[in-house]
Design brief:
Layout lengths: L1 H21 L8 H27 L6 H14 L10 H42 E3 L6 E4 L6 E4 L5 E5 H6 L2 H17 L1 H14 L4 H22 L5 H14 L9 E2 L4 H9 L7 H22 L4
Parallel strand pairs: 2-4
Antiparallel strand pairs: 1-2, 3-4, 3-5
Helix pairs in contact: 1-2, 1-8, 2-3, 2-4, 2-8, 2-11, 4-7, 6-8, 6-9, 7-8, 9-10
Length: 304
Amino acid sequence: MIAAAALAALAIVCAVGAWRLNSARWTTRAPHTAVVLWQALGVTWGLATTGALLAYAFEPYGKGALLGLRDFLVAAYTGGHGTMPLDLPHVLALIAGMTMFTVLVAVLVGATFQTLRARRRHRMLLALIARDEPGVPGVRVVDHPGAAAYCVPGLRSQVVVSAGTLALLSPDELTAVLAHEAAHARERHDLVLLPFAALCRAMPFSGVVRGAQSSVELLIEMAADDRARRFCSPRRLATALLRFGTAGSVPTPSGALGANSGVMARVERLITPQSALPRRFRISVVGFAVMLSASAPLLWLLPS
């Protein structure tokens, strides 16, 4: 029961931590650090919850979740030789744990394939309708009057803007938006969002999960803004975002990352920048995230 209790307690800590992190104010001052913590909370919660169920299910083996699962599978493969009978509560915990683990993996794999398929279709469409513009090298331009700017991530990421965007923004504002989209491509923010989108599909009824996805979406936009600020004025990026908001920007295609999410919060952050968090605090948060991520796999090995 020690392993099951420890994993259950860890899952509760992660759920409470996610709930508190949703309303934390320091995250906008260090979006990269906050995203790392969000990732650690999500991964640890999934492993801790399934691990608690499996650790309890395989308690009769006295070897913990992982080794108990191994012995159970070996016994099942050899026709039950040497296996220990499981009573009804342990069988129910086994079914619940394996079902939850399977659902989480299946949803993640399904979301990955769906996203990749949507991107492949969009790249094929861009090959037909997009053009190169000498004034913005390396960027694909779509002849659409609406305001649109987004990144199609991948091994060969593409930054796409509409003709309406070229007409709407000044050269400095366009540079700021393109730097923002390039940050999405360089830091592969799509890979950060994918697990949270999958978890939201698996648990659409959970307000904490929906809040986590929304928070991470906003944080990666702020992280891209911080990257763009190295190449342009924050006020230029802020005015570009306001122009997008007032012009009625085009929705970002499925599988892409746009620049028009959480506009007002980002504009306020760009116009009135806050002081950066102390380096010691950011290192402490990252260290805690690493230890948190390692705790669940180690507890899977803890004997019952």
